[in-house]
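Structure tokens please, single chain.
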Amino acid sequence: MKVIGVANQKGGVGKTTTSVNLAAALAEERCRVLLIDLDPQANATSALGHEPIEGHSVYEALLQTGTLADAVVPTRRNNLWLIPGDIHLAGAEVEIARQDDHLTRLRDALVPLREDAPFDFIFLDCPPSLGILMTNALAAADELLVPIQCEYFALEGLSKIDGIVGQIRDSGANPNLHIAGILMTMYMRNNLAQQVVFEVQKHFSEAVFLTIIPRTVRLGEAPSHGKTIFEYESNGLGATAYRALAKEFLKKNKQATRRK
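Here you go.
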């Protein structure tokens, strides 16, 4: 089982879109996937057509009053489970900040799931801020997937999150943390986007996914209907791109078990 943090401190880069649709695409590939919504706004939760459920978020596990296993709920897609987000997560930022183990609460809560290994992959959909929830995700993840928009400030954002990863490693909270995948999103065929892709590939080489996610209206519309892109427009450009990403992701993670 591998835990992947999907993170970028900058909002509006396709982070939650990627978390939801990559998780769903891997479920299509018969991988057992758990998506954990760490954002108090619960956008990943609503994008899967769910409402926040009292007592079913990571809040209780972070406060050590419950377990992650008890918070897991099924989705309507085979092989895909969810721990919903809810507004109480905003309180966790304050309630655990003063604790000595505030960086490692989520990592510790994941230990039973790692031991039981009921999933092939766990995705942590991080909030777009450098608070307790995001740093807990970085301390708990085996690796990071960083979506970045094909725009001028992409390299600056990558540099910042690379620095944060270094700080988490140096703190001892997660000495093996690394950026394993960089995903270019919201791509449009223009000179700027092409130049941004070229620069990111030049600086980060093999970490950059070959799959590039296009900017499409359907990808933006699907969450408002509580649907993944595969339910909303199964044969469109967005669905095709995320299916290709799932296959590329699996090639990088050959140890994943496929179920027939």
